[in-house]
């Protein structure tokens, strides 16, 4: 009887930990914005944040985004291997092409390196007439 009581406590404790973890993940989750500008600032030490949070995801049709130095920006495209990416100022934002390594797909994106503004252009290699230009403003 005693081992079943311990097992019950262990299961209850595991459930509480799992629910707590799910709450943390839910609190950290974000939602996509349908506006033309998105800004996601990292929490400061005084706000309880220890560092940067996940990437800023730019949705199709979005034409402007603001990011702090050090943040990663990704561009949500339908086929990571079809879209070529370029930045008008690699010193402000260095970009990397999307890729598929066989086990996962990685969106095209880049890292905000220095304050300033750059134009990021994505071009569909299957239809070079299809381009997507996003003005990226990097702040400190």
General description of the model:
By secondary structure, the chain is an alpha+beta fold. The chain has 2 domains: 1-30; 45-139, Immunoglobulin-like, CATH 2.60.40.2020. 19% of the residues lie in helices and 34% in strands. The strands form 3 sheets. The chain has a 4-stranded mixed sheet, with no helix packed on it. It has a 4-stranded mixed sheet with strand order 2-10-9-4, with no helix packed on it. The relative contact order is 0.16.
What value does the Rg take, in angstroms?
20 Å
Main sheet attributes: strand count, strand direction, barrel closure:
4 strands, mixed
Unreliable stretches covering 5 or more consecutive residues: 1-49
**What is the helix tally?**
1
Structural class call reads alpha+beta
CATH topology term of the largest domain: Immunoglobulin-like
Strand segment tally: 10
Terminal Cα span = 61 Å
State which percent range the strand residues make up. Answer: 25-35%
So what's the overall shape?
A: globular
């Amino acid at each position: 009887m005693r081992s079943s009581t311990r097992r019950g406590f262990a299961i209850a404790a595991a459930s509480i930990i799992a629910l707590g973890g799910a709450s943390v993940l839910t609190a950290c989750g974000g939602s996509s914005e349908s506006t033309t500008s998105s800004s996601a600032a990292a929490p400061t030490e005084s706000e309880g944040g220890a560092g940067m949070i996940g990437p800023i995801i730019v949705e199709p049709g979005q034409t402007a985004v603001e990011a702090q130095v050090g943040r990663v920006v990704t561009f949500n495209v339908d086929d990571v291997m079809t879209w070529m990416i370029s930045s008008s100022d690699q010193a402000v934002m260095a970009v990397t092409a999307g890729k598929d390594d066989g086990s996962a797909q990685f969106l095209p994106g880049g890292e905000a390196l220095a304050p300033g503004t750059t134009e990021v252009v994505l071009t569909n290699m299957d239809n070079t007439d299809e381009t997507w230009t996003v003005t990226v403003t990097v702040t400190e």
